[in-house]
Design goal:
Layout (H helix, E strand, L loop, with lengths): L1 E16 L2 E10 L2 E8 L12 E7 L2 E7 L2
Antiparallel strand pairs: 1-2, 1-4, 2-3, 4-5
Amino acid sequence: MLQTLEATVLQAQAVSIHGAVFYDLLLKTPDGPRRLRFQDTFLSPEPKIGDKLRFELVLGNVTNVERRG
């Protein structure tokens, strides 16, 4: 199941899991608040509060992240 999600970052926190850096985000979406976690290799520099992002998901897992103007 493929999904595209456009959202605004409400909270962002970098976490280290077994030495790999992930971003835990609380997002504002058209359907309400949503939490996502993805590895830092998908987005640089790190996400900040207020950033508008576009996510591509496969079975709920992030496969791509882009900043939106």
